[in-house]
Amino acid sequence: MNIPTLTGILLFIFSILCLVTGIYAFRRYSLTQSERLFAVGLAMCITAVGIACGALNGSPLLPSFNLGWAWYTGTFVGFLFLFLSSIMKSTEQFQLLKRWGIIAAAIVITVIVLTPVFPAFSDPYIQVFLNSLRTIACFLGFLRYVTLYTSKGTRFSLLMCLAFLFITVGYAILIPQLLDPALAQLAAVGAFVRIIGAGVLFTAFVLG
Question: What total number of domains does the chain contain?
Answer without folding.
Answer: 1
